[in-house]
Design a protein that fits this description.
The protein is α+β, with helices and mostly antiparallel strands. The chain is built from 4 helices and 5 strands, in the order H-E-E-H-E-E-E-H-H. It has a single domain, classed as 2-Layer Sandwich (Beta Polymerase, domain 2).
């Protein structure tokens, strides 16, 4: 029997997957009162294109395995790899190369009070 996890538990699983594969500077932003795009954004950095792919694969695999087969509704950037986005509707995982994360500055946008 599959156990249905809360959004917060799903976000925690995704974050743990990133930590396990050495994602850097992992941040979770609660957007419930700031945006209608998603309830949470998870942002993480990687040092290389292969590491971004590894991080994306780990998040997808972990959620599919441990969250009742949960899969992203949409994936962007897997081919280019500089910014990979995994959209799970209620939360979105953003994976960047270090320099691209700095360039796009999502942290500055969502870290405001």
């Amino acid at each position: 029997m599959d156990i249905i996890l809360s959004i917060e538990e799903q976000v925690s699983l995704a974050k743990q997957a990133l930590e396990d594969k050495k994602g850097k500077d992992i941040k979770t932003y609660d957007l419930r009162h700031k945006s209608s795009l998603a309830d949470y954004f998870i942002v993480a950095s990687a040092s290389s294109l292969p590491q971004i792919k590894t991080l994306a694969d780990e998040v997808e695999g972990r959620l599919e395995q441990e969250a009742a087969g949960l899969r992203p509704a949409h994936v962007e950037g897997r081919d280019s790899g500089h910014w990979v986005l995994l959209d799970y509707h209620d939360f979105v995982v953003h994976l960047f190369l270090d320099k691209d994360r700095e360039y796009y500055s999502l942290d500055k946008l969502w870290d405001r009070p």
